[in-house]
Every structure is written in C-alpha cells, then in structure tokens.
Amino acid sequence: MNTKISFRDVVKTYPMKDGVFTALDHVSLDIADREFVTVVGPSGCGKSTLMSMAAGLVEPGAGEVLVDGRPVTGPGPERGVIFQQYALFPWLTVRKNVEFGLKLMDLPPGERRRRAEHAIELVGLSDFADALPKTLSGGMKQRCAIARAYAVNPQVLLMDEPFGALDALTRVQLQDQLLDTWSKEQRTVMFITHDVDEAVYLARRVVVMAARPGRVQQVIDVDLPYPRTEEMRLSPEFGRIRNEVWHAVYHQPPAVPAA
Amino acid sequence: MTQLTAVGKPSEARAARRGAGRPRRALALNLIAVVAGLVVWTLLATVGVQGLPTPLEVAARAGELVADGTLPLDALASLRRVLLGFLLGTLLAVPIGFLMGWYATARGLLEPYVQFFRTIPPLAIIPLAIVLMGIGEVPKVFVIFLAAFLSSVVSTFQGVVDVDRTLINAARVLGASDRTIFAKVVVPASTPFILVGMRVGLGAAWGTLVAAELIAAQEGLGFRMQQAQLYYDLSTIFVGLIAIGVLGLLMDRLLLFAERRLTDWQERR
C-alpha cells in the first residue's frame, strides 16, 4: 500500500522559562493510504502537535512531514481537520457551516447545495440543517463539524480528540457512525485520542506515544476485521489488545536522558 | 439523537416560561418604582424645598416648550450633533480597530495614541477645541466624535484580538485565504464587541454633548438649560434633564435591540 502521510525524524521544541520543552523528539511514522490510525498517549506527548503538522498549522522544527510524498507547506482542503472544540462558526446555520469550505471551491451553486446536503445526511443532521450551533447538543455539533470536513471531500481526515468532550453513550454512537462512513468512502484517518478503548475500537494500527520528550513508544496492530461490532468490543481478543495498549500507555519506562 | 432532542425540550420550555413571567413582574416593579419616585418628588416640592417645582409644574412647562417649538428644535439640534459625532466616530473606529487587531505593525503605531487619549476625558479637550476650531458646530461635533471614537476603537480592537484561534484555524484548513478569514470569520466574530463598543460610544457621545453645548451654543438641550439657569427657571432645567435622559435611554435601547438581533447566534450562558 502507498504511504499517504509520512513523518520523518520530526523534532519540535518550544522555548521555556528554564531551557526548552521538547514536544516531539525525532518522531518517524508512516500512515498508509486509506488506513485508519489512532494515536494515543498521555498529555504532553505531542500527539496533537504531530497532527497539527500534518494539517499544516504547525511547522516542524526539524525533519519533514510529507503528504503524498510532498512536504506540507500549509493547510489545504485535501486534508480535513476536526477539532475537539468543534470550531463551528456560531453565526452560521448547520448548512452554512457545511457550505463554508464548498464556497471556497468555486462550485456551481447547485453542486454546492447537493454536496452539503449529502454531507449533512451522512451524519444524520438533515432535520437540523437550518439550526444555529447554539441550539445543538455537543454530539450534534461535532457531527456538524464532521459534515463540514466531509463536504470538501478530503483524502485525509485529521481528528484531534474529536469525541473527547462527549458523554460515553454519544461517543460510542459517533465512533460507529465514523467507522460506517469511513468504510463507505475510505479516507486516510489520523485520529488523536486519550481513550484506549476508542483507540483500539477504531484503528487498524494504534500508535502509542510517550511524553517528556514526546516520542513514539510502540505501534500496535489491531487484527480485528472491519466492520467492527459491539460483540467485538466485548471479545477476549479486543480485551487482549486493549490491555497491551493500556500497558504501553500507562506503564511507560522513563525517558532516556538526551546525550 | 431522538433522546438528545427529548432531553433538550424541558429546559427550553422552562426558559420560555421564565421568559414570559419575568418581564411582566419586572415591568410592574419598574412602574411601582417610577410612581413612588414621582410621589416623593411631589412631597418634597409641596413641603417646600426651596424653589423645587412639582412634577405637574414641570409637565406644564414641558407642554409650553413643546407648543412653542423650543423643545423639539433643541432636541433636534442636540440629536444632530450627537448622531453626527457618533457616526463619524464609529465609522473611523471600526476600521482602525480592525487594523490594530489584525496587523501588529498598525497596533504598535496606533496603540500609544489610543491609550493615551483614552485617559483624557474628551471634555478636557473642549478648551483646546474652541481655541483651534472656534465656537461653531465644529468643536462640539469634534469633541463628541472623539468620545465615541475612543470608546469604540478599543472594543473593536479587543474583539479582533479575542477571536477564537480555532475558528481561524478551522477556516484555514478549509482553504480560506487571509482575506476570506478576515471577512468571513474575524468580522462576524467580533461583531458583538463592536456593538458593545458602539453602545458605550453612544453613551460617551451623549454625555459629552451637554457639556459641549454649555459653551457658546445657540440652541440645544444643554444650551436651554444654561439659559434657564440664568433666569432661575428650574422647571425648564428639569424638562431639559428629563429630555436628555429619555432620549439617551431610547437611543441605547435601539442599539441594544439591534445588538440582540445581530448577535442572536451567541451562546449566552
């Protein structure tokens, strides 16, 4: 399979009052085309920073980030981003939010409307297309944000703890919905989370990161077929993988001091 | 999803009930307070506080001033000054505030002046304005303009600075250029701040007006009160004060109404 996203020896440091904070310390990671990868790790491990680099919102200090073999120089509509805080434009209705990216593409109005309609339908918000974000629940807001990202038809979806602020029930519903749409319109997904269950349930591969300095600790394959089901979530095999990931996240050996 | 909407409903219904019940009660209390105030005023006047006219005498005087056209003309003259100064002030404040919020260079160049002049009450500029601009309309409008401008510019600037970074990032990742982000994200996101700034600016403009009119005006509410003071005409002074209060309140409510309409999308907690 072709490599879609490639992090090569990426370093990112931030100046601090006393010395520097190493957010990412020589991180290398390849994500294949149409692969679903989750990145999990303690706070401060640089997982969001890593994703922001693929999005083109943060520049690497050293090393390079490639998408389709070309270095990322800035954000672009072929890489959709979904933020934890939804980031909906509160003055626009659901439909207008979804059309925001489409309007920047110079599509004919009919085509624009059709694609927005399709994306809204995909996330099940058709009944709320003309509602303002303030009237929506957290789960509905995030689905609207997902529809906005889908509408411009990106090849890559970068998701930064998108379900982190939702209650457990809504989270499970949105996970299933996300997998459902992913199996219909396969895209490369890089999904950041701090929830081990979520990481295992969604991904083909779980990347476990460690903090201080931020680095890749372990990459764990999830040998469960798609579509993932509720039974699978309760299966011994799922439990085994979850334990492995859990162990990798919560029992990390201390960082080797940099020479 | 069905349960999500079902959960939403009771609280909405509660909010609606509260919305209907509260204003009626508040309105009744407001009315009681106004009536009580008038009664106290009447009592003070009849007990014989030196020279104090009763509400009825003031109302009669107001009737006379309306009948001979003085009050409408004065109010019109004052309103014209205030609206002219206020409009010029906000028209300049909004672009300047945007410039300061968006470009670090513009902020660096303009901020010392804005912050410095903000600490000077516009009324303190009056002597200078009269010396430089004479005693016509220009210095009055200028002082009002300054008051409105300084209030609006700071809140517009603050509004642009405070625009949520994730909204800007959300637009950028959808492929928006800087120009689009400015027009489609920064401007709408800072509208609530601008409107609050305009309300503060209007208040400042109105407050400055009367003082500006105390100096060398031929008409206007402030001028009329100044004249009445010379003739010990307390009723006219009261009419002027009440007219200023009522007009100020009306303008503020009008802007508040516009603000509510334009920023209805905000989540109010």
Automatic annotation (TrEMBL), chain A:
Any one Pfam family match given in the protein's UniProt record, by short name: ABC_tran
ABC transporter domain location: 5-232
Key words of the record: ATP-binding, Nucleotide-binding, Transport
SMART domains: AAA
Signal peptide annotation: none
GO molecular function, one term: ATP hydrolysis activity
Protein name: ABC transporter ATP-binding protein
Organism annotation: Nonomuraea terrae
UniProtKB/TrEMBL annotation, chain B:
Gene3D superfamilies the record matches: MetI-like (1.10.3720.10)
Full protein name: ABC transporter permease
Record-annotated ABC transmembrane type-1 domain positions: 75-255
Transmembrane residue ranges: 27-49, 82-104, 116-135, 141-161, 181-202, 230-251
Subcellular location: Cell membrane
Membrane topology: Multi-pass membrane protein
Similarity annotation: Belongs to the binding-protein-dependent transport system permease family.
Species of the source: Nonomuraea terrae
Keywords per UniProt: Cell membrane, Membrane, Transmembrane, Transmembrane helix, Transport
Any one of the GO BP annotations: alkanesulfonate transmembrane transport
KW Transmembrane (keyword) present: yes
Listed InterPro entries: MetI-like (IPR000515), MetI-like_sf (IPR035906)
Family matches, as SUPFAM superfamilies: MetI-like
GO cellular component, one term: plasma membrane
